[in-house]
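TL;DR need structure tokens for one chain.
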Amino acid sequence: MNSPHEVTINIDNRTLAVPKGLTILEVARRNEIYIPTLCAHKDLTPFGGCRMCIVEVEKMRGLPTACTTPVEEGMVIRTETAQVHAVRLEILQLILSEHTSSCLICDEKEECKRFSTTIRKAGVTTGCRYCPNDSQCELQLVADKMGLKEIGYPIYYRNLPVEKDDPFFDRDYNLCILCGRCVRMCQDVRTAGTLAFAQRGRQTIIGPAFHRSHIDAGCEFCGACVSVCPTGALSERAGKWEGKPDREETTTCALCGIGCQTRLQVKGQRVIGSLPAEDPLINHGQLCVKGRFCIPELVNGYQRLVRPFRTENSTQAMLSWEEAVELAAKRLEACAPDEFGMLISPDCCTEDLYVAQKFVRTAMRSHRIDTSARSFYGSAFDSYLRILKKSQPLAELKNASVILCLGFDGRFGASVVGVELRKATRNGAKVVTMHPRDHSVSVLSERWIQPIPGMELESLRTLVDLTRAEAGAVAGSANGELRAGLSETASLLRAAPAAALLVGSEFLKYDAAAEILATIEQLALNTGAGIVAVPAHSNLLGTIMMGAYAEFLPGGMSSSDEARRLEVGRQWGVNLAESSSPWHAGSISAKNKLKVLYVVGEVITNLHSLCEFSIFQNIYPPEFLKDADLVLPAAAFSEVEGTFFNFEGRVQRVARAVAPPGEALPDWQIICRIARKMRVPGFDFASVADIRDEIATLVPEFAEFKNGSRERYPMRFGPAMQAAAHEPVSRRNRNGSFPCMLSASVADHSYRGFRLTAFVGGAKELFSEGVALINARDAENAGISTGDSMVLTGDDFERILPAQILEGQPEGFIHAVLHPGEMFNPNPLPVRIRKSDV
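>> reply
TL;DR here they are.
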């Protein structure tokens, strides 16, 4: 007897009991019955557009489409009758009559494919041998399965230009069969609405409205449309001629702190692509532009380090690993604990971080280890870590009734968060955003609170006052529109049954960043709102939990805690040195030079001014050879086994997809080799599994890693972090001499200290870095056009940056997107502007 949740059907003379609610196509696929289809996709709602999936159903008129017809009790289905096959062939011929298809029906296609040596450089696709989707094309597969031999209709070539104006992927709509997959993916799954059908009949095309470019239309370049395209109409530019991958490896993306799961596509020993994994916990089968398109170019760059070398007078002298390790050990053995320092990247795997801090504390008898996260977050580092402790899972956004976005722009680097925001609005959530400039959230928000740059703290304090338990507060001295926005937002937050605060990175470089974050904490307390904060680095929490700072030991415990220090020392079989006043890399200077500075996965310029001898360990060489004495080739995240802590506190697997290039090694192996050469015990790890076993004795969460559950663990870490040093400067206002205000943020599109724009072609077009954003009227008054060099002059400050005129930039306010290490103080800063060389 059937379950009440099942129905019995007969399909191709097979009697099956199947769950209610399934379509005929879903039942067929679950039971390995082939039904051809071109418009159906597992992530999309049934469409019935291509009509290739027609079937016969007894007592049902016509030939219904299998993808849109739900199964019913007693249904009798035939998927491959003579009539069905004939109609499908007719439909396929009609589709191919507007698709370049000679290779699909040629009798000699197999021999041609085997023996043709023609270089594939056709400007317009003319056949499958010239198609980037050759052997990966669903239309090609359907034609083969159907046994199509000829096309009985005149071939109409649409002669549309191949679109190559935007970064990352090309569009040849001569190959488009109008299945609508890309449109539905953009509108229904990504909820971005960039793509749509335009015009009608034979003139129908797909693209943004009003013939805009994809950049102008707000495209996030997530690549979801490319992933679902069943033909070669949409193709990834960097890898379009790589062919079919040999295999895939699921791993964790290392390009931000969200921790999206990605499938690296591998051919031979090269990563040729990256696709989203089906992950129900975080990214739900989606990626941002960085995870989708930037990884292959980043890890395959021709400049990758492949052998150790030392530099003398800016000249390379290649070394064997034995020679390099011996040189490093010799220098380190001669270095006193207080003359040494290590800077390691928060993009390194957890196991690398653990081995590195253990090396510093046992081999160097020091606590002098730090990461670039301290300088990235500056005076707000400790405040940001407190926020991160309270951060909730990204999935909680869908349960929120009101979401206040604070300095968040999710168009590119965190576009999967933008997807969750748009889904929340479809579920009825009200979104409010606070941001000084035009950004991705402004188009979907109920209210855009646009404070004058530098006045965000005052606006947030007003919100705190307005949301206190006692009513009656007013919106301070804010102008009319801002006052109304703050009052409305406070009312929404007070009345919301479930509120959320989404914290971005826009305000983190302001002088008042620590106060801004503390005010956000208070706002969350007043309203009972959950906090979601997304760090820029892939393993920021891992740096804390592994003790990659002078203040912390493994487990996030204070290095000043004598009992904890003794416990860790017993595990390692050493007496750990007492922790002196907290040290950080910002204290290194020309006056305070170190004897040896060991830099792992970071990039520092002018190293010789900071130390007598530098060890530079990374995937690419330093920009200037004189910046490093000893250079060691390291492996990228696609070439190692390990783990990352994502921003939610999940321990996630990093899987090795390919071998490192040349003689490059994982960071932990390099450090262990040096430790063994120094005759330091405790570095005989044979694998990352051995390292994880040792970590588990100090950090209990790691004992559960083997079950693969990826559960969230509460972040427990103790001491306050010392902020990177900078002299406090009082806030300054505009005046007659300096009529504009300049604010700045740091470009966070980087990996191991290297900017993606240095190695990824499309990133150079997409990410604004090293530019000054200016209002059109301000630019006109100064005689400045986009691309002109603009001189920004303040009190004891001058910077020349290329100008970028941006619609929506407030008049009288300029925003600079700077590289790390270029920040100024105070921020914002009053300036005057002029065109360079005028």
